[in-house]
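Question (not urgent): is this output format expected?
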Amino acid sequence: MILLDGKKTSNDIKDEITIKVAELKKKGRKTPHLAAIIVGANGASITYVNAKVKACEKVGFESTLVQLPEDVSEAELLSKIDELNNDDRIDGFIVQLPLPKHIDEHKVTLAVSPEKDVDGFHPENLGRMVLDLPCFLPATPYGIVQLLDRYDIETSGKDCVVIGRSHIVGSPMSILMARNNKVGNCTVTLTHSRTKNLIDYTKKADIIIVALGKAEFLTADMVKEGVVVVDVGITRVKDASRKSGFRLLGDVKFDEVAPKCSYITPVPGGVGPMTIASLMMNTLQAMDMK
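Got this back:
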């Protein structure tokens, strides 16, 4: 069993980006600039956004953090998005999810300019992805593709099962794993809450990508020997023995599934860091496209 080390791989990518940014500065070109909007004080969101800001500092990007109160109106948020859309200093930006219930996430997604949509959520970018045209790939699926690529995991002709059909991970992941590319050419089954006899699919799978948000959902009896498992889930579970008061669990029951795997991502330290690295790559791409 080999761990797919997202922390190390993301640091490798960030080192590569750091070199590119230094070269840009030597040539007198603009420094890439990533902005993030966060609404409210969700602990997990704040931790994640702070990690993005630190990543920007590491690679030499400029960064802007826009913090808005929990009760900010939808109109005020849309106005701030419009402001960033029209700010030439900003190459790309994200709006951290989830948003408060009084704000329509679909309106927010549509409001972000496709040219600055480094999270890859806008329908224009998703549509271009489906057609295999240049675009910003959704950050988490992009990170998973990078991880599989850099570990030289053979995907061509393999049976891939994706568990979860969200527009952020599951659905785009199924498209990327099926496309005609180095990481791709899989026979993909997209499963979800209405899938009957899920184990019949997972037991045959060569690659399983789990993106449900249900702690320790995938168990050893559901997988075959030699499977590649990518665990996208991350759930906070109370743990009084920890200084933080909680521990993090993935969607995979790691201790019992890992011994059957050829490769598996840990939680934490697997997909999460790769998502941040992908944002950096998309931001660099956004600046190059100008």
